[in-house]
Amino acid sequence: MSPFKAACIQVTAGNNLMANCEAAAAQAVEARAAGADLVLMPENVAMMESGRTALVLNAEPEPENRALAFFRHLAREIDVWLHIGSLHVLLDDGMIANRSYVIDPSGVVRASYDKIHMFDVDLGLGESYRESSTFTPGDRAVAVDLPWGRLGLSVCYDLRFPHLFRALAQAGCLFLAVPAAFTRTTGKAHWHVLLRARAIETGCYVFAPAQCGDHSPRRQTYGHALIVSPWGEILADALERPGWVMAEIDPLKVLEARRKVPSLDHDRAFALPEPPVEE
């Protein structure tokens, strides 16, 4: 369980697929040159588009997905473990999967994960989102073995469902990936505290690459790509501009945190309360 360096990328993606891929790749190349062994990219790294019609028109099936081919080549070229936060993958029924990929330094896809929880919310002042109208939710948790330990996968809104992360930690994950395109509204209120909570609850390192800035007049994201320690300390924060942050990751710190507070071993069965009586 040797230490390694992880880098989280922050970008402001638009609606030009290849331009977005190249911008993310430039950040990855810089991070790798600075010593990163694992590079993580945000949700929607290849496309930030709004509206169902535009999303479907710009999504591509996995075998022909240009962004996936581009990033597989990038991983080989710079010899790095690469986590693609998510791409829009067109499904046979016309819906889209919001799909993460983990690619090894030889360009082989080692794991993929479809976002489970759909962001269907009304935030007020006309800001609302209905991911379920466009995306098909995943139905399985996914973990992948890296040279330094097991990484659990999630995407953005999954962050609000702590049982997913507890299950990943209890399945042997030492690290959790939370790539996101958090809205500016929810990010200001909840981003830092939720990520720190997931790290503390699981005793895992949390890697959270992010989208930032103005993508369109109606779509702004919060930024603040974070790396959080198993004790809940913020090790790196990318703030609000495109770029990348990096931290040294020591897997033994996970074991240390879990020895201090072994809550993952303290689950107990309990009866649920009765549902409320309807009048």
From TrEMBL:
Domain CN hydrolase: 4-251
A Pfam cross-reference name: CN_hydrolase
One GO molecular-function entry: hydrolase activity
Top-level taxon in the UniProt lineage: Bacteria
UniProt keyword Hydrolase, yes or no: yes
Swiss-Prot/TrEMBL keywords: Hydrolase
Membrane-spanning intervals of the chain: none
Hydrolase among keywords: yes
Matching PROSITE patterns: CN_HYDROLASE, UPF0012
The family this protein is said to belong to: Belongs to the carbon-nitrogen hydrolase superfamily. NIT1/NIT2 family.
Name of the protein this chain belongs to: Carbon-nitrogen hydrolase family protein
